[in-house]
Structures are given as structure tokens and as C-alpha cells.
Amino acid sequence: VQLVESGGDLVQPGGSLRLSCAASGSTFSTDAMTWVRQAPGKGLEWVSVIDDSGTLIEYADSVKGRFTISRDNAKNTLYLQMNSPRPEDTGVYYCEADYIYLNSVGVWEVGRSWGQGTQVTVSS
After folding, report:
1. Sign of the Cα pseudo-torsion (58, 63, 67, 72, in order)
2. φ, ψ of residue 116 in degrees (nearest 5)
3. With contact defined as beta carbons under 8 Å apart, do 95 and 21 qualify?
4. Cα–Cα distance for residue pair 95/117, rounded to 1 Å
5. Which of 34, 70, 71, 82 is most open to solvent, judged by the fewest CB atoms within 10 Å of its CB?
6. pLDDT > 70: percent of the chain
7. CA 12 to CA 8: how far, in whole Å?
């Protein structure tokens, strides 16, 4: 399964931005999907997770109340709505997906993939 993020951009503090993560491949079903970010010169920071049905959602305290995670299973796409972003939200945002897929011999296997990241810069 391949993941491709998009939507990263330069945004002013207090503005809004929506990130997308599109999953593609043959015969797969995604389970939980996660957003993780990396600020310049820092390690990875977990941002949010959503289960396969979209009913179980968790956020890091640093983004709670400002960011909203969602998914459209019909489009195999994960979203992150970023409202009132702050300069400290600047970084590369990655999506991660857990999934099952049908391998070449017709057996279901578990997999995990990461996207290539999309840059978000919050600055006036």
C-alpha cells in the first residue's frame, strides 16, 4: 500500500489548512491511520490517530481542540484539518496506515506503510 500526503503549505497563524493522505494499492483494507509530524531539528511527534470506522479518535494535547482528523474510506483518504495553527506546528507531516492486504498467493497479511511527508510552515 502506498501513501501520498498533500496539502502542505505556508499558512499564517490563526489560518487554516487541510492535509490529505491518499492510500493506493491492490486488494487492501486499512485499519487505524495516524498523523505524525517532525519539527525542524526535532524528533517525530505523534499528532492523532483514527480507527477504521472513524469512531475512535485521539489527539496529542498540543493539537487538541484545533486539529480534526477524519477519513473517507470510500476514497481511501485520511485528512487532517488544521485550524488556528501556531508557529510551533511547523514541520513535516507524515501519515501512517496499518492495513491488511491480499498477497500474491491469496493469503491476507498485515502491513504498515508511511507516506513521504508534506511540509507545513506556519508563519506571518
Report:
1. negative
2. -85, -10
3. yes
4. 7
5. 70
6. 100
7. 13
